[in-house]
Amino acid sequence: MLILSRKMNESIMVGEHIEIKIIDVNNRVVKLGIDAPKDVSVHRKEIFEAIKDENLAAPMADKQKIVSLFEFYNQTKTDK
Q1: 22 and 54, same domain (yes or no)
Q2: Domain range holding 66?
Q3: Number of domains in the chain
Q4: pLDDT mean values, one per 10 residues, the chain (80 residues)
Q5: Within this chain, do residues 28 and 53 fall inside the same structural domain, yes or no?
Q6: H/E segment holding residue 79
């Protein structure tokens, strides 16, 4: 892990197109400004983890829906 010290209004560059700027420091809370291209996703880590978990869970939900529809179809077919 790279650890850098920055003061108010100083920046860190990530590659050529992403700038992270220290906007404010108050009561042990740091406000960052992030300037990145629109095609780069920027999320707080807890939001990133929630999105990742939802994406992992989505195929299982779809699989269960397909199984349920198949079972329903078979049930209605045998009821006739």
Answers
A1: no
A2: 43-80
A3: 2
A4: 95 97 95 97 94 81 73 70
A5: no
A6: helix 45-79
